[in-house]
Amino acid sequence: MVPIKLVLAVQEEEYIDPFLRYVHASEFDRRLVVTAFSRKEAFAQYVLESGGDIDAILGDATFLEAVDPLKRPGLCCIQLGEDGNLTGANGLCIEKYQPLHQLLSSVVELVRGGFGTSMPSRGRPIVIGVYSTVGGCGKTTVALHLARQLATEGGKVFYLNLETIGSELTHAGQSLREGQAGLARLLYDLKAADDRREPPRFPISAYAYRHPVLQGDTLAPPDNLNELLEMERKDTSELLEYIAGSGLYDSVIVDMDSFPDGRTEAVLERADRVVWIVTDDWGVMRKTGGWLAHLERTRPDCYRSLLGKARFVLNRYTGKRSVDLPRPDLKIQATLSHIPAWSQGNRQGDLLYSPLYQRDMIRLCSELHGEGPITLALEG
Hints:
Layout: E1 4-9, H1 13-25, E2 32-37, H2 40-50, E3 56-59, H3 61-66, E4 76-81, E5 93-95, H4 100-114, E6 126-131, H5 139-152, E7 157-161, H6 183-196, E8 208-211, E9 216-219, H7 226-229, H8 233-244, E10 251-255, H9 262-270, E11 273-278, H10 282-298, H11 300-309, E12 310-317, E13 334-337, H12 355-368
Parallel strand pairs: 1-2, 1-3, 3-4, 4-5, 6-10, 6-11, 7-9, 7-10, 11-12, 12-13
Antiparallel strand pairs: 8-9
Helix pairs in contact: 5-12, 8-9, 10-11
């Protein structure tokens, strides 16, 4: 993501110093390039000479008034309000004295989302659920590499892990800083907003952080598993709509449990595509067939909808198959190569690299985004 070129313009120099230090010491160092001014004359001269090289101005009302004649179309001007007075001249105003993480998150959201600069060109993002009926099929590895490949191709990606006990993302670059929220806080705030019958108060950027290897955004997992165990279908649906509706992402990749509880069922229902992971194993195929047969008997509408968006992906493919899918009407639509080196101390939380696996991922991404079907020649 290209960093936002932000100009901070306030009278108090003691406000500028902690602002800049926090930006440089936080994840916002990748998102913002900040130039600060405490004198109106220097600020106005900078704006005059900058041309189109500024994305946003964050400042006191008197500073914004000083450059009002210099404003150009597309320049985002955000006023800093005090004592609850959040009425800006152009409608964009945030509280000046608040936790810096919340303030900066709001700024990023207003610049990226509020003006539509990062809305996907195709409209709402595609939500891709990654699922397997049986654990141990490499589902999380697939989800992580899928997210990274989409990001590598230039997409804005959000990776959401809803496994009860998920694989920890390594190489996060740094531990979460004091005051940074995560999935647990987001779930709490969404419930509170629902109880008040109001929209959520904070943007997704107040809860998420950018993973440097994944090249996309994600949420820190809850410390208490009850936060996930208590998630109901409604909670999950609201969470997905909140992330997808932010306007900041092209793709939302959801890694979920194999057990079909309310949380998993909500993802399967909401997803635009479901990457259904299987392996060349008789037990995996038998359990997949059993689950599908049960779903067809008990919820035929859900069964038809799911099969319409499911893409069965054979993971750890060695070049030959010994086991077929459990139903003749189901087909393998993509394969992901077996990488023997990954089997030795394989840590699902790591994003490993293989040219062969990346080739397979490129083909899978093309299929998921409707750029043409995958043609496979599988030896029986």
